[in-house]
Structures are given as structure tokens and as C-alpha cells.
């Protein structure tokens, strides 16, 4: 190869040698660089599996119970709207009014975790993941400890199903498969409640198998009343007491779901229908077996709101500590207004519950176009960011037992429980009522004030059970707000994501 | 790497190697001296490249335009080029010893060098892609906050949209040739002088004050929140000083940008900064003074009399009181707060501060050292009190030529800026200004505190926006160092071939510090129901980028019909982010740091990414410079991939052919076609399913992540083919360019909503495909060019239309993007990837009704430059047709206190909304007078008045930006996007920072 030279010595043997050297060096450098692979970059800020140590299980259980709070604010707010008790008149989100209070048809939630669904199933999955990790934990748990943790997780799993079933009622729900690869089963609400009741019973068996051993995981302070031992349910401090309380509520809802599944058996505004006696009887036994059920210990609201140390209630705690959640209803203090129906129905001058839970709201109402429906009161029983919120407590449990008795036709017994609440919590004289409709309405009146904005959400559930949503719901009719047609909404639609996963419609089969 | 790609590359390299030995023997040389000058005024042109055609032999002209060249005996011609002038080929004859070469000004800037690889370029005359090149003159036309503003409307195929309206400090989103990803990176790659630089967005955590994303944080809504995308943070390319930029090239798709592998699918913006030039030091000093003012306002109801205010309150707010005794109380209340008509918008967004910009730079050479030094100090006033943008920048670009074979370039840039953007946008406590104004009638005096410094309480809303603007501090302080270097070693330089070893490396180190403070005494803080008034945030982010490349380039011209460039190289880069955030609430009065809060929340984000790639490329110019062929392949792997050891290959092929001249008025017609593939890496962490962490009752906990990661996740793939034609007419007086492209995105990283009943609500998967098809047209012309009269008119029209369609999905159609639910993004086969749907209306096919599209139907820009003597007038009109913006600011007004100025329109919208329709999805078409600048260059006779001839040039200018908008859109600005950086659901309007127009008066002096 011959090249002419430019100025200098380009093309000299030395130059060509340098070229070859540079080329070889370059190629070697490129090859060496390519051979140098990088090590994996981990996820820095959180674990990616449940750690198989007692500490890891503790973290998992804490997180699972904590996760059960994620929808709590939305759930109780929706249910308070459906029960026509209170609404969030915030200027930042008109849908709290238009959807929850029935101004426009409630639209299916569009978010993947929205619509009181996603978080609940995430918690259910986490319970399963923790249970799957339990056999591999080192040092190993004892058999009793395994049974206790399993019973606890099953109870919380059932609790999350209950929230879904109560939010969506007759629209149905899904039962999660054994793994994420197994498609969930679409079921009607009746079959859903059957599954829930069975799950709670299974959990109760596990808790009873574990017996009086200390719960081997640390529970949040709000579970203090059920955090001492696994079982039995009649023992104060046992987790099984919480299980049976939920089983009583679930059994009641099962009994009416069965009735409503057959038109002929469904309650009407004037008749009790035919709720399933077997389910009611088991529900009554469950409530009776719960150490949380204690009508004689019902008391008027304490100043400062609820406390986690209540021996007859289970609560979700909140705090403003880093990483924790604040009370979601407290955050709405200035925008959450009672509806005028509440002031019309209740004794605002003497009832100790009214005086203890509500305060005059001096804030400017936001969403003023809807203001004629609102009363100048707000809820004051969650006065701080740290205020705990009841999951279930003796006051609601007593009214649930009253409902069970109404279902069984024991109206006098029901009135006894209703008056336990009315006199002990409200300081009101005992009420008298006879006949199904009057006793039912007496129940609804106490539910309206006793468990407003609590997790049991009894009034909205009862309105549906007794098929009196339209009768009780007069929010917009009273104020005659121009252009508003009341939709009498009491359910949250099945989320779009769920519908889309099933071809755009959520359909289910219902067992006979 | 695909076998096919390797074969093509190996073949090309082998061809060069085979041909090289038969290179022609050369004879002796002749010394040619000459001068390069402006053909019009005969002024010397320094820095022109004079190359013996068909060889690698060449020199640059000196400061006086002269050059000396050793001319090979068989030299036939010289090719001479210089940026700003049209290239010429000048014949030379045997024995010729002198030459004077005149260059015509490239009025339309038709010629430039465009990037074809990491270390290779080609003349735009031969380029096979429609690479948009924006020159320094375009960038410097008007003082603007960021370089993105400077190229708005100047790049066909690019949609540039501001985050949060006219908030100072920039914050823009660039979308090139349509949507390029659903869940991956959607921002172009930015490369400055060969170094990949950071364009991260660090969200400052306004969320801790306004709780705009409160429900999604680990602390829930209430006391505090983590940074949220709704903070609308500034993307960091805003730091770059536009005045340091020599040129910007935008590689729009894989056919041009494949060389950048899996970072290039959203396009590549290659920024070249100014360098030193031969000759004595040339100083430039510029001073601009101006002002940013509110461009548009909303029609908000006014109350000229007390009676009108009372009627509003009784009839529209307290309707139930009308005609009742309560109305008397209502009237008395209004009387107690009525302070005459107010104009809140002008009061709140009428910050009268001046804006200024001071530039100083010097460029020159001293012996073998070329240098460019610059400094900038600027301040942009924000429209709202206590907002603004302050920036200082210093740059040093030095090139040292040690000898003819070795040169080293070092580019060092330090930037400091401070941005104050206030609290606007979405919120959940009623603090955002337009949110407050939707409830507050314009008759309460709110805009000044008492003598004791106490602000009035707003009786109609939980916030006084004037107090909030004045008292809430939102400074974001950025310190950034970008340092890069290039070593060019030419171990072999023969007459017909050179071998270059090139090393490029650099670092980009950015420290972003936000210290936000909402004092506890503010009405809005006192009314926060958490009873934890006062919030402060310390947000510190450290972003480190390191990258380098080693490149071998062999340039061969040994055959008369062949100019071949073979290149191969290795690149590696590392990116890391560490971002601790501390939020304090319930603050001690008088101190603005989070540690004085009684309640603290901590957040921490950390990411890291390591990438490496190999590439090879062959570029051949043949058939008398008429045919250009390029083939190359890049193979890349990344720690963000599921399989970190796997290389993904991205080939690229292109060809351009210049047709023989077939008509007298046609100078040149070039046909071009290019195909390329690139990728889009998964984002950090997509391959994991990390638990969320929580604290409950003082105990640590882990909660299941609702999103399921994909441990096998792969990069997205982009395959683009573009073809086009460029035709130049009338001796370069006009050029028409047309490009059609098809960009197919496949193997998408999707996050479909799955049946949440399985325990996950979403999951990352690869799959599906969508396609962008589009056309880009441009016409550049100089209808009038009368050098003797000093009159020139040049005009540029560009048109861009993109059409996207989802081809397939691996799942059922699903909602995508991030909206507030009053119109949603949705992915379904056969429909636009960026459609807006109404999920309330499900059609018979089971899909929601399409009600709009987030991307415009077409864009057009029209720029004109008139030069008359020493005057120059430039104007740019930007037109966008179609596209949708979801106007939730209107919803605030419609559903609140009847304060929208057009009550019939508001009622109509609300009625439609109540019927399940989407009246807030609105047409975002517009016509904007984007820029106007008028300048006057002082004649030499005046310039010489300065003693000592120290002044060489002087120019006065008056410029305006975003001067006028015509639109049917109901909101403040159809271009707004106030929901963070988005891939597909960009146009969202919710109480934004209002749009700004600016005016500047400037003087530029050459010394």
C-alpha cells in the first residue's frame, strides 16, 4: 500500500505502526469495556418480599392492619352520605356532594384503587402472603402461635371483604383466588357474605385452637381491647372477641342478603320480609359470645372523642407521626357539615350524643350552591389528627343485636337494646314503640346519631336492608334545590377497573 | 446485537479496508494562499473550512480570512464552508498559488453540519433525516426563561408545552413526533457538547402546603405529604443559559437518533455551545431590561355597587334566604365587608418588578488555544408577588491544539438559580389563587395588610390569596456544575484517510434545594382542620450524571467516488439521585424550617442507573457527493432492565440522493429515506414490587404495593421510517422540505389496570403497539433580497401533523395517564393513543366515548424577518389546531358561588356536567403571536464615536414574547398543563399560574 505524504511524516512506518497500535488498543478497550457488566441495582428504600423473621412478620401484620385504614376515611364518608347524615361541602371536590348525596348518578370509580375495592383486596393479598411466609419463619413459631397469627390474619381478611360488601351491596364482590394467577370468583352479595361468615368462623377456630396464649405479634394500640390473647371470644382481651363481633355483624348482613335475593322474601318499607333465621341465630350467638358486647357499659361520648383504651371497642389509630396516617375525617373539619335531616330528626338540645359529638360550625360553607341542604354543625368527635376511629364498639354492637332481634321478630327485645343505647349513650328517656315499622324507625333514629361517621356505618346499611332509601332520604326534596333530582344513592358502583377486567360488565352467578 | 446489523456493519468496514490499498498514488504538493470573504461586502470570513475536495487535506481561515494550503498536485477543487454562509466548490488548477473565495450569506440557514453519530456529522446537504437545526440567532431572538421557550414554534414536529402556565423559571414538556411512551420516559435526551445531561424534575413538595396529592402519600391527607407530580417542578434543562448556545439540533426519532440507543425514543436534543474562534478576542456585552405581565385573565363577575353585591349574596349564594327575614342579616353582612369593586386578578398578578438579563462573553484564540468565556445574570419577575426567577451562569470552553494530531477541549459550566413559583395549581385545602377567586366576590379588600402587618380575613373562603402570595416562601435553589471534555487524537492523517481516537467524558452534578414555608399565622393555615398550622419543607436532591464514550473514527477518501467514514465506540453512563425530604407542620411562630414543627415527616427517594453501549457505523458518500449511505448499530444494556446482562440492538440505515439538476430554477433536489430503531428504558424500580412502608401506632409496617412490578421488564422498542424530499430553488432563495414518517412503538411498558381483586390494581408489563404517522413541511424563502438597498425579507413556514393509533394491546382496553376524572386518557386498539374519553358514556362496542384528544391535530408556525438597512424586524406566529385541554378552573367557578362572568355559559357547562357530559374538555386550538423583535444596528460611523475604536458593533432591540393569543378556549391559556410531567394526558388546567407575556428592551455591544 502506497500513500503520498502530506507535510511531515504521515505514512512513515512509525506512523503506520502507531495507527495499528491505536487501532488494536481501541478495539481492546472497547472489548474490555463491553465485557464489564454491572451488578444489579437494588430497590433502595423498601423490602420487596415479606421478611421471614418474626420481626418481618410483625412488620407485615402491622402493615396489613395499617393498610386496612387506607380506604377508611372514604368509606365512612361515603356511607355517611348514603345514610343522609353528613356531607363534605369542600370547594376542592364537588363530587363529594354530587355523588355521595345523590345529586347526579354516582359514576363508577375510575382509579385502580378507588371505589372502596383495590386497597381491600391488596390487604387480603398481603394477609395471604404473610400466611405463606409463616412456615418459613426462623426461629419457627409454635403450632399455637401459628394458629393465632393465622386466625388474626383471617379475621382481618374477612374484615376487608366486609368493607367491600358493604360499600357495593347488591352489586356483588369477588373472592380472591389462592394466588394472583388464579382468577377471582365473581359472587353475588349473598354468597359473598356466606364466604365472609365462613372465613370468620375458620379464623375463630384457629384462635380457639391457639387458646389463651399471648398474640405473638404486636397489635396497634386501638386493638388493645382484643390484643391480649388469641381466644376464647368470651375472654376480655381476646382477639376472638373481635372476630365474634364481626361475625355477628356479618351474620346479620348475610341473613338480609339471603332475604333480598328472593323478591318475595325481601323487606319492603312496611314489612319485615323473611330474613334468614339460621344466619340471624348464629349472628346472635356470635354477638353474645363477644366480650365486646356489653350494653351496660355504654356511656355518653367522652369529652375529647374516642380513646383507644376503650375496653369494649376496637379502633383504628391515627397520628401525625412520620409515616403514619392522620385521622381522615378530622382533616375535613371545616368542610364536613351535617345535613338538615339530622337536625330535624334528633334532640339537639338534650341528647348527650349530640352535645358530645357535634359543634356549631362557624366556617364559611364551601360549595354554597348546595348549602340549603346543610346544617350549621360539624362532627367534633375526631378533634385531632390522632383521634382514633371505631371499627366496632359496644354501642354499635348493641344496635346490631337489636337489628338481629328485629329480624327474628323479637321486637320487644330489640327495643330493650335500642333503649340501652338511647338511655346510656344519649341520656334520653327510653322510647316506646310497637310494631315492626315503629321499632325499625326507632332503631334507625338511634343509628343515625350513635354511629355516624364510624366504621360500622349502620344507618346506610340498615336503609338498604329495610328497603327504605327513598323514604328516609329527603335531603333535596326538603330544600327544593332547583335542578336537583335525588338519585337516592346508597351504593358505590363496581370500579371501572373491575368491570373492564370482565369485559365491561360485572356479572355473577348466585348460588341457589 | 442482531446478526443482520452486525453483518451490514462488518461488510461496510471490510469494503473500506479492501478499497484502501488501491488508493491512488499521489504526487508532490503546491502551496496555495488565499482569502475567504463575504461575497457581498468583501469582509474577511475567519474560521471557514477550506478542504481539498475528495481528500482529508484542509485548513481553516485565519482572523483576516486568509489561509495557506498544501495543494496536492491532482487537486481539482476546493470545498469551502462556514456556518452562516452557503458552501461553495471552487475549481483549482495545477500550479495555482492564490485564490480569493467569496461566500454568499446563507440567509435561510440552509446549510449546517448535522449529527449522524456520537462522533460523526454530515453536511445537511447530504443528511438523510429531517433534523431540525435551531441557530444561535433563533435562540437569542428574545430573552426567555429557558432554552425550551426559545425553540417553541421553531422545530417542526415538536409540541412544547409549559407546565403550570407562566410560572417563572420555566418547566416545559417537549413532545417530538407524537406520544412516544405511555409509562416510560417521555422527555427527549439532552446532550450538550457530547455529554448527556440531567433533565430530571425534582418536585419541590408544594403538596405539603396545599395537599394537592395528599391522599396518595404515605401520610394520607392531612398533616403532611410527600412530593407529588402535581407540584409541577421545573425540569432541569431550564438551567442552561440560552445565550451560550451555538446551535440546537433535534433528532426527532429513531431513524436519526438510534445511535443513542435506548434513551432516544423521545428524540434527542443536541446542544452545541459556543466555542472560541481564531483571531483577537471578541467581546459581546448584552443588557436587556423588560417585564413579564399577565397575558390573559378570566371573566370574573364584578360588583360595582353595594346593592349588586347584596343581590348576589341573597339570590345566588343564600338562595334559601331570599324573601325571608334572614335576607336582612345577609344584606347587613355584605355591607360590613363591601369595599367597592376590586380587580383581584390585576392586584394579585400585577407584580411590577422589572426583569433584566446581562450577558458578557469573550471568544478568541491565543496561539493554539481557542477560548469562549461567558457569564450571565438574569432575573425574571413572576406575575404574582414573591415569585421570580434568578439565574447566574458562568461558562468556560477552551480548546487546546497541542499539535496537528492532538487537541483537547474542556467545557465547564456553573449555574446557580433560584426560582420562586408560589402556590398554584390543584389543591385540597382551598389555597390556590383561582380556586379562592372562584368563591370570593370581587368587593372585599384583601390585598394589603394592616399597619400592624395583619392581613384581612377572607370571609368567603378559607384563604386570603394576597396574604398567601406575600407570606408563603417557595424558593428553589439550584447549584449545578456541568463539566465535559473531549480528547481528539489523530494517530494517522494521510492525504486520503485519517484515523481519529476520540474520548468524550463529563459530569453533571446538580444540587436542588427547596425550603418551603407557610407561616402558621395565615388564615389558610389557621383554618386547616388538622389544627397543625404552619408547614415547612426542606427538600434536598442530589443528581449526579457521569458519562463517557470512546470512539474510533476512520475517514477514507482514497477513491474519487468514495468518502467513507467508519466509526465504532463504547459509551457508558451512570445516573443517580438521592432525595431526602423533611416536612414539619405545626410550626413555631417566627421560624421557617421544618425542625421547628411539632410534627415531622420524612421521605427519601434514591435511584441509580448504569448503562453501557457499543456501537458501530459506516457512512459513505459517493457518486460525486450525491449519494450518502449510512448503516450502524448500537447495542445497549442497563441495570433498569429485567435482564441486566442482555444487550438490546438498535440498527439504523439511511440514504440520501441528490438528483441531477433538471431545471434552471432548481438548484438541487434531494431524496432521502431513513430507518432506525431505538428504545426506551424501563424506569428505575419498574422491575420490583416493593412494599410500601408505614408506621402504625409507633410500629414499623410494610403494606402491599398496589402495583405489581415485572422482574423481566424490557425496554420499549421504537422503529421509525422517514422519507422526504428537500428542494432548493432560485440560487438558494427558497427551499421546500417535506417529510413523512411512521414511528411504531412496540413492546410498550404498560401499566394496565388489572382486576384489583387479585390484590394488585395495576401491573407493569411489556406488550402492545401504537403508531405515529405524520408529515412535516417547511418552506423557507427569501422573496426579497436586495443587498444594495439593504432590503431583505425572508420567511419560514412550517407545518406538522401527527396521527396516532393504538395497534394492539396485550390486555383489555384501559384507562391510562393521570387525570382528575372529568375526561380521561384511554387506550384501545384502533383509537388515538392520546384520546380523551368520557367514561360516563359507554358505547355499544363497550368502549367509552371519545370526546377529545390531548395532542393537537396540526401545528403550524410562520416566521418572517425583514431587514432594511440597519433595521431588522422578526415575527413568529404559532398556530395549533385541535387538541383538548381539560379546564377544571372553569369547574371551580361553575360549581361554587356564581362568580364566573358569563353566567349563562357557566350554567350551561354545569348542566352538561350534571347530565354526565364533559363540558370541561375544551378545544385548545389557538393562534399566538409568539415573538416579535425589532432591532437596529448602529452604523459604523456611530459605532466609531467611542474613543479608541473599542466598539465594533452596537445593536438596540425591542422584543416581545407571547404577545397575543386568539383562541376559543375558555381558560387562561390553551397550552397549559398543570398535572406534572405527563406522557399522554398533558393538557390539564386547574387553577394554574396565569400565562405571561414579556417585553424587553436590549442593547448588545461588540468590543
The succession of helices and strands of chain A, N to C, reads: HHHEHHHEEHHHEEHHEEEHHHHHHH
Fraction in beta strands of chain A: 5-15%
Taken from the alpha-carbon principal axes, the silhouette of chain B is globular
- The helix-and-strand class of chain A reads mainly alpha
Can you give keywords for this protein?
heterodimer, A: 512 residues, mainly alpha, Serine Threonine Protein Phosphatase 5, Tetratricopeptide repeat, two-stranded antiparallel ribbon, 46% helix, disordered N terminus, B: 1007 residues, mainly beta, Immunoglobulin-like, Maltoporin, Chain A, 22-stranded antiparallel barrel, five-stranded mixed beta sheet, 14 helices, 47% strand
What does this molecule look like?
Chain A has 512 residues and is mainly alpha-helical. Chain A has one domain: Serine Threonine Protein Phosphatase 5, Tetratricopeptide repeat. Helices cover 46% and strands 5% of the residues of chain A. Chain A has helices at residues 13-35, 54-67, 72-82, 95-98, 114-133, 143-168, 189-210, 239-260, 277-289, 340-345, 352-357, 394-408, 411-426, 436-450, 458-465, 469-472, 475-479, 496-501; strands at residues 86-88, 173-175, 185-187, 313-316, 336-338, 358-360, 377-379, 389-393. In chain A, strands 1-5 form a two-stranded antiparallel ribbon. Chain A has a two-stranded antiparallel ribbon with strand order 2-3. The longest helix of chain A is centred in the N-terminal third of the chain and has 26 residues, at 143-168. Chain A is globular. The termini of chain A are far apart. In chain B, a hairpin with a 4-residue loop joins strand 33 (716-729) and strand 34. In chain B, helix 6 (306-317) crosses helix 7 (326-337) and helix 12 packs across helix 13. Chain B has two domains: 29-106, Immunoglobulin-like (Sandwich), CATH 2.60.40.1120; 147-294 and 377-1006, Maltoporin, Chain A. Chain B has 1007 residues and is mainly beta. Chain B is 10% helix and 47% strand. Chain B has a 22-stranded antiparallel beta barrel. Chain B has a five-stranded mixed sheet with strand order 10-15-16-13-14. At the A-B interface, helix 1, helix 2, helix 5 and helix 18 of A face strand 22, strand 23, strand 25, strand 26 and strand 30 of B.
Amino acid at each position: 500500500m502506497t500513500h503520498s505524504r502530506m507535510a511531515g511524516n504521515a505514512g512513515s512506518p512509525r506512523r503506520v505502526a502507531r495507527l495499528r497500535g491505536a487501532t488494536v488498543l481501541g478495539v481492546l478497550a472497547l472489548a474490555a469495556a463491553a465485557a464489564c457488566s454491572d451488578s444489579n441495582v437494588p430497590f433502595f428504600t423498601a423490602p420487596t418480599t415479606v421478611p421471614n423473621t418474626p420481626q418481618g412478620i410483625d412488620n407485615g401484620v402491622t402493615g396489613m392492619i395499617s393498610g386496612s385504614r387506607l380506604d377508611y376515611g372514604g368509606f365512612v364518608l361515603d356511607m355517611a352520605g348514603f345514610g343522609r347524615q353528613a356531607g363534605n361541602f369542600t370547594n376542592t371536590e364537588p363530587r363529594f356532594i354530587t355523588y355521595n348525596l345523590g345529586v347526579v348518578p354516582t359514576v363508577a370509580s375510575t382509579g385502580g384503587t378507588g371505589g372502596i375495592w383495590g386497597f381491600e383486596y391488596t390487604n387480603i393479598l398481603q394477609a395471604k402472603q404473610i400466611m405463606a411466609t409463616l412456615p418459613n419463619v426462623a426461629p419457627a413459631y409454635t403450632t399455637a402461635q401459628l394458629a393465632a397469627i393465622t386466625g388474626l390474619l383471617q379475621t382481618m381478611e374477612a374484615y376487608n371483604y366486609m368493607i367491600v360488601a358493604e360499600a357495593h351491596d347488591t352489586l356483588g364482590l369477588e373472592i380472591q383466588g389462592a394466588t394472583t394467577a388464579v382468577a377471582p370468583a365473581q359472587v353475588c352479595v349473598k354468597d359473598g357474605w356466606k364466604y365472609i361468615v365462613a372465613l370468620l368462623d375458620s379464623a375463630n377456630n384457629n384462635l380457639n385452637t391457639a387458646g389463651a396464649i399471648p398474640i405473638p405479634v404486636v397489635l396497634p394500640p386501638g386493638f388493645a381491647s382484643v390484643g391480649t390473647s388469641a381466644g376464647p371470644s368470651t375472654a376480655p382481651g381476646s382477639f376472638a372477641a373481635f372476630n365474634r363481633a364481626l361475625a355477628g355483624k356479618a351474620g346479620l348482613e348475610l341473613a338480609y342478603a339471603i332475604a333480598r335475593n328472593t323478591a318475595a322474601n325481601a323487606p319492603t318499607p312496611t314489612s319485615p320480609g323473611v330474613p334468614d333465621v339460621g344466619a340471624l341465630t348464629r349472628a346472635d350467638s356470635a354477638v353474645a359470645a363477644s366480650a365486646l358486647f356489653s350494653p351496660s357499659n355504654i356511656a355518653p361520648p367522652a369529652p375529647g372523642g374516642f380513646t383507644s383504651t376503650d375496653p369494649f371497642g376496637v379502633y383504628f389509630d391515627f397520628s401525625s407521626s412520620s409515616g403514619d396516617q392522620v385521622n381522615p375525617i378530622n382533616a375535613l373539619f371545616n368542610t364536613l357539615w351535617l345535613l338538615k335531616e339530622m337536625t330535624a330528626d334528633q334532640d339537639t338540645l338534650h341528647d348527650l350524643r349530640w352535645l358530645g359529638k357535634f359543634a356549631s360550625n362557624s366556617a364559611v360553607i364551601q360549595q354554597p350552591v348546595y348549602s340549603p341542604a346543610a346544617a350549621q354543625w360539624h362532627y367534633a368527635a375526631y378533634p385531632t389528627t390522632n383521634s382514633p376511629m371505631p371499627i366496632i364498639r359496644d354501642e354499635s354492637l348493641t344496635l346490631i343485636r337489636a337489628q338481629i332481634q328485629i329480624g327474628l321478630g323479637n321486637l320487644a327485645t330489640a327495643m330493650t337494646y335500642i333503649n340501652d343505647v338511647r338511655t346510656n349513650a344519649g341520656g334520653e328517656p327510653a322510647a316506646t314503640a310497637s310494631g315492626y315499622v315503629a321499632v325499625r324507625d326507632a332503631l334507625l333514629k338511634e343509628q343515625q346519631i350513635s354511629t355516624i361517621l364510624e366504621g360500622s356505618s349502620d344507618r346506610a346499611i340498615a336503609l338498604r336492608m329495610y328497603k327504605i332509601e327513598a323514604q328516609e332520604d329527603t335531603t333535596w326534596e326538603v330544600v327544593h334545590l332547583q335542578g336537583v333530582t335525588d338519585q337516592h344513592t346508597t351504593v358505590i358502583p363496581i370500579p371501572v377497573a373491575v368491570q373492564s377486567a370482565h369485559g365491561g360488565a360485572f356479572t355473577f352467578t348466585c348460588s341457589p | 446485537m442482531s446478526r443482520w446489523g452486525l453483518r451490514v456493519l462488518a461488510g461496510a468496514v471490510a469494503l473500506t479496508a479492501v478499497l484502501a490499498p488501491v488508493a491512488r498514488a499521489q504526487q508532490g504538493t503546491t502551496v496555495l494562499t488565499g482569502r475567504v470573504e463575504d461575497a457581498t461586502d468583501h469582509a474577511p470570513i475567519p474560521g471557514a473550512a477550506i478542504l481539498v475536495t475528495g481528500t482529508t487535506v484542509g485548513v481553516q481561515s485565519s482572523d483576516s480570512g486568509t489561509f495557506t494550503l498544501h495543494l496536492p498536485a491532482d487537486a481539482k477543487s476546493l470545498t469551502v464552508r462556514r456556518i452562516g454562509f452557503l458552501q461553495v466548490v471552487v475549481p483549482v488548477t495545477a500550479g495555482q498559488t492564490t485564490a480569493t473565495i467569496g461566500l454568499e450569506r446563507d440567509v435561510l440557514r440552509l446549510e449546517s453540519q448535522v449529527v449522524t453519530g456520537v462522533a460523526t456529522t454530515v453536511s445537511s446537504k447530504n443528511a438523510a433525516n429531517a433534523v431540525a437545526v435551531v441557530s444561535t440567532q433563533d435562540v437569542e431572538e428574545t430573552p426567555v426563561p429557558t432554552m425550551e421557550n426559545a425553540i417553541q414554534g421553531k422545530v417542526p414536529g415538536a409540541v412544547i408545552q409549559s407546565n403550570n402556565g407562566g410560572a417563572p423559571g420555566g418547566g416545559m414538556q417537549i413532545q417530538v413526533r407524537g406520544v412516544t411512551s405511555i409509562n416510560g420516559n417521555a422527555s427527549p435526551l439532552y446532550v450538550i457538547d457530547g455529554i448527556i445531561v440531567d433533565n430530571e424534575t425534582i418536585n419541590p413538595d408544594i403538596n405539603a402546603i396545599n395537599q394537592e396529592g395528599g391522599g396518595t402519600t404515605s401520610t394520607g391527607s392531612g398533616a403532611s405529604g410527600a412530593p407529588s407530580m402535581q407540584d409541577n417542578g421545573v425540569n432541569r434543562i431550564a438551567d442552561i443559559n440560552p445565550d451560550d448556545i451555538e446551535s440546537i439540533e433535534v433528532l426527532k426519532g429513531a431513524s436519526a437518533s438510534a445511535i443513542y440507543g435506548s434513551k432516544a425514543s423521545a428524540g434527542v436534543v443536541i446542544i452545541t455551545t459556543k466555542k472560541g474562534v481564531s483571531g483577537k478576542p471578541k467581546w459581546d456585552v448584552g443588557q436587556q431590561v423588560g417585564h413579564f405581565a399577565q397575558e390573559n385573565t378570566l371573566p370574573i363577575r364584578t360588583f360595582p355597587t353595594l346593592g349588586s353585591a347584596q343581590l348576589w349574596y341573597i339570590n345566588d349564594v343564600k338562595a334559601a334566604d331570599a324573601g325571608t327575614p334572614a335576607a336582612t342579616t345577609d344584606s347587613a353582612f355584605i355591607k360590613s365587608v363591601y369595599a367597592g369593586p376590586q380587580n383581584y386578578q390585576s392586584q394579585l398578578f400585577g407584580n411590577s418588578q422589572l426583569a433584566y438579563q446581562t450577558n458578557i462573553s469573550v471568544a478568541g484564540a491565543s496561539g493554539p488555544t481557542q477560548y469562549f468565556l461567558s457569564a450571565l445574570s438574569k432575573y425574571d419577575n413572576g406575575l404574582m408577588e414573591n415569585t421570580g426567577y434568578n439565574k447566574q451562569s458562568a461558562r468556560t470552553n477552551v480548546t487546546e491544539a497541542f499539535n496537528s494530531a492532538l487537541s483537547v477541549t474542556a467545557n465547564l459550566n456553573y449555574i446557580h438559580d433560584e426560582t420562586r413559583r408560589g402556590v398554584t395549581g390543584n389543591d385540597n385545602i382551598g389555597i390556590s389563587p383561582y380556586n379562592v377567586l372562584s368563591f370570593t366576590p370581587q368587593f372585599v379588600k384583601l390585598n394589603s395588610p394592616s399597619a400592624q402587618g395583619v392581613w384581612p380575613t377572607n370571609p368567603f373562603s378559607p384563604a386570603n390569596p394576597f396574604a398567601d402570595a406575600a407570606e408563603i416562601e417557595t424558593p428553589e435553589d439550584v447549584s449545578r456544575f456541568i463539566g465535559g471534555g473531549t480528547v481528539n487524537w489523530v494517530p494517522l492523517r494521510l492525504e486520503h484517510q485519517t484515523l481519529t481516537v476520540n474520548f468524550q467524558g463529563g459530569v453533571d452534578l446538580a444540587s436542588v434545594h427547596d425550603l418551603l414555608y407557610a407561616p402558621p399565622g395565615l388564615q389558610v393555615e389557621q383554618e386547616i382542620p388538622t389544627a397543625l398550622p404552619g408547614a415547612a419543607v426542606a427538600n434536598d436532591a442530589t443528581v449526579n450524571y457521569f458519562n463517557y464514550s470512546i470512539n474510533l473514527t476512520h475517514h477514507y477518501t482514497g477513491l474519487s467516488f468514495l468518502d467513507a467514514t467508519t466509526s465504532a465506540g463504547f459509551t457508558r453512563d451512570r445516573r443517580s439521585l438521592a432525595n431526602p425530604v423533611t416536612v414539619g407542620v405545626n410550626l413555631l411562630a417566627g421560624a421557617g424550617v421544618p425542625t421547628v414543627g411539632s410534627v415531622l415527616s420524612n421521605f427519601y427517594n434514591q435511584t441509580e442507573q448504569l448503562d453501557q453501549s457499543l456501537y458501530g457505523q459506516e457512512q459513505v458518500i459517493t457518486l460525486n457527493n450525491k449519494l450518502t449511505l449510512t448503516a450502524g448499530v448500537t447495542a445497549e444494556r442497563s441495570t433498569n432492565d429485567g435482564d441486566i446482562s442482555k444487550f438490546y440492538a438498535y440498527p439504523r440505515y439511511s440514504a440520501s440522493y441528490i438528483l441531477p439538476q433538471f431545471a434552471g430554477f432548481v438548484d438541487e433536489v434531494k431524496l432521502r429515506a431513513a430507518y432506525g430503531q431505538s428504545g426506551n428504558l424501563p424506569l428505575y424500580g419498574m422491575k420490583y414490587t416493593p412494599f410500601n412502608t408505614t408506621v402504625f401506632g409507633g410500629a414499623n409496617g410494610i403494606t402491599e404495593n398496589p402495583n405489581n412490578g415485572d422482574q423481566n421488564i424490557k425496554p420499549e422498542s421504537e422503529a421509525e421510517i422517514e422519507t422526504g424530499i428537500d428542494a432548493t430553488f432560485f440560487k438558494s432563495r427558497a427551499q421546500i422540505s417535506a417529510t413523512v414518517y411512521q414511528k411504531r412503538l412496540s413492546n410498550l411498558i404498560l401499566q394496565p389496570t388489572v382486576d384489583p381483586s387479585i390484590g394488585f390494581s395495576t401491573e407493569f408489563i411489556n406488550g402492545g403497539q401504537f403508531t405515529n404517522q405524520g408529515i412535516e413541511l417547511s418552506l423557507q424563502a427569501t422573496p426579497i433580497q436586495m443587498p444594495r438597498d439593504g432590503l431583505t425579507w425572508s420567511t419560514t413556514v412550517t407545518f406538522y401533523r401527527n396521527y396516532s393509533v393504538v395497534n394492539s394491546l396485550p390486555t383489555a382496553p384501559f384507562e391510562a395517564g393521570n387525570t382528575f376524572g372529568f375526561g380521561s386518557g384511554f387506550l384501545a386498539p384502533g383509537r388515538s393513543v392520546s384520546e380523551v374519553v368520557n367514561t360516563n358514556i359507554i358505547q355499544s362496542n363497550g368502549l367509552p366515548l371519545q370526546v377529545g384528544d390531548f395532542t393537537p391535530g396540526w401545528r403550524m408556525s410562520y416566521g418572517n424577518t425583514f431587514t432594511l438597512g440597519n433595521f431588522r424586524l422578526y415575527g413568529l406566529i404559532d398556530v395549533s389546531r385541535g387538541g383538548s385541554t381539560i379546564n377544571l378552573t372553569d369547574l371551580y367557578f361553575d360549581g361554587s358561588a356564581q362568580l364566573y362572568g358569563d353566567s349563562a355559559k357557566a350554567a350551561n357547562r354545569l348542566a352538561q356536567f350534571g347530565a354526565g357530559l364533559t363540558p370541561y374538555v375544551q378545544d385548545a386550538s389557538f393562534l399566538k403571536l409568539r415573538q416579535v423583535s425589532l432591532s437596529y444596528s448602529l452604523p459604523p460611523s456611530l459605532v466609531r464615536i467611542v474613543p479608541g475604536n473599542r466598539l465594533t458593533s452596537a445593536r438596540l432591540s425591542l422584543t416581545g414574547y407571547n404577545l397575543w393569543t386568539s383562541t376559543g378556549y375558555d381558560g387562561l391559556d390553551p397550552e397549559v398543563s398543570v398535572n406534572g410531567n405527563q406522557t399522554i394526558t398533558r393538557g390539564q388546567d386547574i387553577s394554574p399560574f396565569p400565562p405571561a407575556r414579556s417585553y424587553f428592551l436590549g442593547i448588545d455591544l461588540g468590543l
